[in-house]
Description:
This protein is of the alpha+beta class. Helices cover 34% and strands 28% of the residues. It contains four helices and five strands, in the order H-E-E-E-H-H-E-E-H. Strands 1-2-3-4-5 form a five-stranded mixed beta sheet, with helices on one face. Strand 2 and strand 3 (41-49) form a beta hairpin. The mean pLDDT is 92.
Amino acid sequence: CQRYLSGAGYNEVVVTWTDPETGVVCKMRLDSLRSVSGGGLGLVDVKTAACAESGAFSAAANRFDYFVKAGFYMHGMTVIRHRPDVFAWVVVEKDPPYLSAAYPISDMALAQGESEARELLARYAKCKAANDWPGYPEEEISHPKWSRRSEFYHW
């Protein structure tokens, strides 16, 4: 973890840009942007997890779309011409003994995440332009029958 957190840099960096393909104004807040040991610029995203073991965290990263977020961040940094050499997650477990691990993301995973992020930006731009936001229909709901209080039942 020290490789990604000990170099000179900045924490909680806010970056804004206009996506050149969609015209969408974007914003992100980087946990850490710093020099990494061994050279280069590193973008670090700090995460907490129930388990920081690589397999468990990889599954959580997939479930919570962390790869898409990483791709979005790298896309934004590319647009502003400051693309980092490495993107890494520093993961800290939520319970004692608070084990931690650092996981740089593969180029393939970053490319896929960036592709998905760009697809989502395009979808957002299309919805915004048409003012058409797909979702569930509006409908009136009530308590399910099983949850009604006994005072409403006729004995």
